[in-house]
Write a sequence for this structure.
């Protein structure tokens, strides 16, 4: 298991954005599910601020996989969340809860994460928060 990736997830679950940032390279490429690639810690921070305003999430059942040589890793997990504030273009928020399988892929260099790519099923999430 890659310790940097585990530390990143531990910080996520603690709501510790600074702890997450400490795991990232300055030029981190953040590939957002259904979104644009954001490069740099500043854009990653803005993304986290937005997410923390609209969602409260905790990850469980985390399994981290590491490629030989430690330059790449992947993880699968369950996102347990509450939809707090309506996110633009998405259904209206009123405290709905959701449980969603997801996965992330990482590139690593010198003990830092240089790429984070996260995938989840947006249609499944939408169905859950829409009462379907």
């Amino acid at each position: 298991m890659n310790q940097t990736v585990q530390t990143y997830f531990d910080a996520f679950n603690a709501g510790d954005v600074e702890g997450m940032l400490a795991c990232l390279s300055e030029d981190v490429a953040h590939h957002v599910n259904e979104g644009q690639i954001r490069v740099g810690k500043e854009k990653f921070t803005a993304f986290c601020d937005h997410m923390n305003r609209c969602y409260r999430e905790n990850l469980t059942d985390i399994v981290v996989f590491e490629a030989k040589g430690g330059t790449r890793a992947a993880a699968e997990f369950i996102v347990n969340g509450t939809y707090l504030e309506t996110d633009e273009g998405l259904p209206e928020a009123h405290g709905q809860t959701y449980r969603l399988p997801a996965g992330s892929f990482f590139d690593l260099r010198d003990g830092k994460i240089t790429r984070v790519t996260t995938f989840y099923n947006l249609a499944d999430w939408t169905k859950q928060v829409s009462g379907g």
Q: What stands out?
A: The chain has one domain: 3-129. The longest helix spans residues 41-54. The chain has four helices and six strands. The chain has a mean pLDDT of 95.
